[in-house]
User: Which sequence fits this backbone?
């Protein structure tokens, strides 16, 4: 891909396939428009309080071939404003609202300048990511209210659900407006689990940052850990040996396996097919034990480390073969149930136009015809012929189920390929050349976690301490698609639709 | 009105039936759960777990919302009370329980459904969105399954020329060939579907779900706690046991005591328990193999039950 001609003169290569330029706010919209026109997506927007000044970093990514463009926009501390890109990109509008809450940078001409991250009990004008924001202030009553758009009409009624649910699930409030059983409108209210993770990382050393990254979303330890390590390595200009990248790719697939298997089981459980859930849970447990044998941790923590990977052993081909056989039995059990197939088919359709406009990625995107897969666009290592992304176009629960099934199959065959190519178990090597690197150039890491592409952007100071870590979990981009797919869906099918997305609350709300 | 049995014997039958249903209902639910767990490869709780749960709930505090009226606490009592009445008068163990003459099939079945109506009113009374949603769904399903049930009853009463349950059972015992007639078989299938729908089992409702938005029956009882919840759980399991015992009465009546005396009664008890347990195991096995229907498909299933019951009546009239 060629870079847009409009980019400024001082465009400089800063890291792994990455170029950066400092631009003024006034030029931002035109540049962003030309980058979008080139098929790039806005992967991350990060605020930076550098003390004397404030800066906003927009990361655009595209490919293949892997290309990453960063625009650094300086912001006036006395009048913090950036032009809103909401008219060009829906994800941008969400990033800007987050920026406005956490940094107090106002997106000018934003169509929905409401709070996103901060609930209404946080006082006006308090922005926790600014330096000197001080201690957590006392809560106030309804500083920025959360108005639900009222829906009127004969027979319309409202069902509020959550944030406390009957099962062991994360907190989210869903409000439905319903006629009979048909959903007219649904509004999801999230951000009940803000933990201040990005702030927590500041001042920590690289190893401590990894421990935090692995715990951002418990089921995505490798996805976040790997994206973080890639970002740190990019910031340090570390070359990681290919053997290590192959082992990392295998760990990423192991994470995908156990999560997809669990999701497939949960989908069946949600339609009352408990037998398949029981089978899927036994297979998941089998996979978790394999994870422990591989990394010493059931959720694969500690496998990916800065500079490489560290595993006890890799799974054998026999083990993968047994998993494949058990998985195929599970799929056979599910697909032979006409009732289950009937429940999945045509339920909660997210069509491609909506998926594209909302910037949906990952499993959900690939079930709606979006081909983006970071394993192809931002590859860690050459996956050769062993891998091609799974894309379905139905956009319904069935398509999301099928994407998961096909991805498990693809993961298994990819892993056989990976373990044949790599036998380096403790592959950690440092090859660094940091001459002339500016801390603000930072590093970017992108990994295709099991939900979708996880993006981290890290800036380190001269003593290798974390100055700023910005994290984007795919859930942040995919949550807005859930209400959209509920058009013509009935209330009792919502849990199934929600499960087929299976988005993270913890990863969404850092 | 039938007379022939000593009054003491009839009272003994009724008492035994009520006690049997009170204890047997929760055990039946426990048995079905155990079967399900075993088939799914899980150990599962002991069969008596529902009884232990009842004890636990009975000790807990009752919490009710300020919005509720007298209907809310009354609903569980109506559910259990109406089921106890049915358990007392229906010929579950012997053909002549006390007040057996009043055990008209219509009366019995609609006494059982009275509990559903009471629960729906209680759910509406709680004033929550889930209560209203559950009640509306339960009534939709009830409105579709009850006509089917009425017609099934009609089909079953044609050969006996009576809708009195003891009469039907007595005649069936005397004419076992009746049980293999087409109208019986058609009515049997329709009756099974109605049992499944009315007792909130798969594929109509999933009693073990934690997803509030998919619930039908469970959504109605979300606001109940403590002794009220214990009564509801007890009432539900009793109703399931009574429905199955009625099913056994109507389609496989052998073993029901047709003469007074302890030996007959023991035989009646043993066979009824065995039949209900077998039906429970069968239903549990069926539940493992199916998934829950989409809510809007449930009417199609119940329409099927209605069609079968109409065919059963036609067949009964033609044969008669």
Assistant:
């Amino acid at each position: 891909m060629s870079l847009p001609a409009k980019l400024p003169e001082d465009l400089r290569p800063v890291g792994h396939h990455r170029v950066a330029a400092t631009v003024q706010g006034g030029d931002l919209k035109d540049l962003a428009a030309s980058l979008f026109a080139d098929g790039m997506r806005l992967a991350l927007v990060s605020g930076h309080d550098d003390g004397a000044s404030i800066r906003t970093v927009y990361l655009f990514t595209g490919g293949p071939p892997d290309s990453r463009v960063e625009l650094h926009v300086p912001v006036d501390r006395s009048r913090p404003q950036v032009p809103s890109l909401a008219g060009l990109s829906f994800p941008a509008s969400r990033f800007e609202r987050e920026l406005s809450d956490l940094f107090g940078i106002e997106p000018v001409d934003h169509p929905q300048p409401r709070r996103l991250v901060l609930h209404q009990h946080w006082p006006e004008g308090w922005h926790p990511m600014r330096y000197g924001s001080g201690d957590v202030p006392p809560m106030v009553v309804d500083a920025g209210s959360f108005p639900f758009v009222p829906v009127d009409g004969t027979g319309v009624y409202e069902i509020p659900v959550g944030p406390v649910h009957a099962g062991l699930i994360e907190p989210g409030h869903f409000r439905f407006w319903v006629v009979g059983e048909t959903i007219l409108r649904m509004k999801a209210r999230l951000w009940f689990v803000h933990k201040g993770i990005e702030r927590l990382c500041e001042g920590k050393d690289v190893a401590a940052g990894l421990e935090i990254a692995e715990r951002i979303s418990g089921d995505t330890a490798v996805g976040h850990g790997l994206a973080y390590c890639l970002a740190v390595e990019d910031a340090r200009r570390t070359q990681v040996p290919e053997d290590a990248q192959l082992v990392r790719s295998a760990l990423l697939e192991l994470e995908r396996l156990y999560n997809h298997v669990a999701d497939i089981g949960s989908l069946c459980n949600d339609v009352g097919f408990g037998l398949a859930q029981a089978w899927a849970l036994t297979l998941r447990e089998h996979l978790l034990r394999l994870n422990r044998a591989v990394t010493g941790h059931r959720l694969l923590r500690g496998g990916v480390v800065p500079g490489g990977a560290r595993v006890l052993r890799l799974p054998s081909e026999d083990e993968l073969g047994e998993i494949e056989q058990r998985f195929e039995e599970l799929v056979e059990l599910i697909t032979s149930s006409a009732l289950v197939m009937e429940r999945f088919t045509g339920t909660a359709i997210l069509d491609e136009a909506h998926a594209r406009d909302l910037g949906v990625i990952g499993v959900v995107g690939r079930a709606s015809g979006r081909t983006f897969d970071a394993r192809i666009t931002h590859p860690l290592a050459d996956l050769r012929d062993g891998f091609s992304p799974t894309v379905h176009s139905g956009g319904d629960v069935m398509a999301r189920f099928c994407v998961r099934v096909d991805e498990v199959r693809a993961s298994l065959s990819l892993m056989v390929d990976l373990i044949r190519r790599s036998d380096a178990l403790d592959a950690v090597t440092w090859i660094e050349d940091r001459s002339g690197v500016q801390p603000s150039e930072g590093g970017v890491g992108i990994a295709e976690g099991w939900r979708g592409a996880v993006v981290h952007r890290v800036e380190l100071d001269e003593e290798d301490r974390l100055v700023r870590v910005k994290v984007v979990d795919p859930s942040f981009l995919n949550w807005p698609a859930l209400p959209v797919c509920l058009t013509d869906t009935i209330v009792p099918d919502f849990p199934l639709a929600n499960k087929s997305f299976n988005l993270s609350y913890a990863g969404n709300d850092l | 009105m039938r007379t022939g049995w000593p009054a003491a014997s009839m009272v003994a039958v009724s008492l035994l039936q009520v006690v049997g249903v009170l204890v047997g209902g929760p055990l039946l639910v426990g048995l079905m759960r155990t079967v399900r767990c075993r088939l799914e490869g899980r150990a599962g709780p002991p069969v008596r777990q529902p009884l232990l749960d009842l004890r636990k709930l009975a000790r807990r505090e009752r919490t009710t919302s300020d919005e509720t009226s007298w209907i809310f606490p009354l609903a569980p009592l109506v559910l259990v009370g109406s089921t106890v009445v049915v358990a007392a008068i229906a010929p579950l163990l012997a053909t002549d329980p006390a007040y057996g003459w009043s055990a008209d099939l219509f009366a019995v079945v609609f006494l059982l459904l009275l509990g559903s109506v009471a629960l729906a009113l209680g759910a509406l009374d709680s004033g929550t969105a889930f209560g209203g949603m559950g009640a509306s769904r339960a009534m939709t399903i009830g409105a579709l399954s009850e006509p089917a049930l009425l017609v099934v009853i009609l089909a079953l009463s044609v050969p006996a020329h009576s809708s009195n349950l003891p009469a039907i059972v007595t005649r069936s015992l005397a004419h076992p060939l009746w049980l293999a007639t087409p109208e019986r078989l058609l009515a049997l299938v329709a009756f099974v579907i109605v049992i499944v729908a009315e007792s909130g089992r798969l594929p109509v409702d999933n009693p073990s779900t934690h997803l509030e938005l998919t619930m039908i029956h469970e959504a109605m009882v979300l606001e109940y706690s403590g002794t009220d919840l214990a009564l509801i759980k007890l009432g539900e399991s009793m109703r399931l046991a009574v429905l199955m015992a009625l099913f056994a009465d109507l389609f496989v009546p052998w073993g029901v005591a047709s003469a007074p005396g302890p030996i007959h009664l023991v035989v009646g008890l043993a066979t009824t328990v065995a039949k209900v347990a077998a039906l429970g195991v069968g239903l549990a096995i069926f539940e493992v193999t199916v998934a829950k229907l989409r809510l809007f498909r449930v009417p199609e299933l119940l329409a099927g039950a209605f069609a079968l019951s109409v065919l059963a009546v036609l067949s009964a009239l033609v044969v008669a």
The mean pLDDT of chain A is 89.
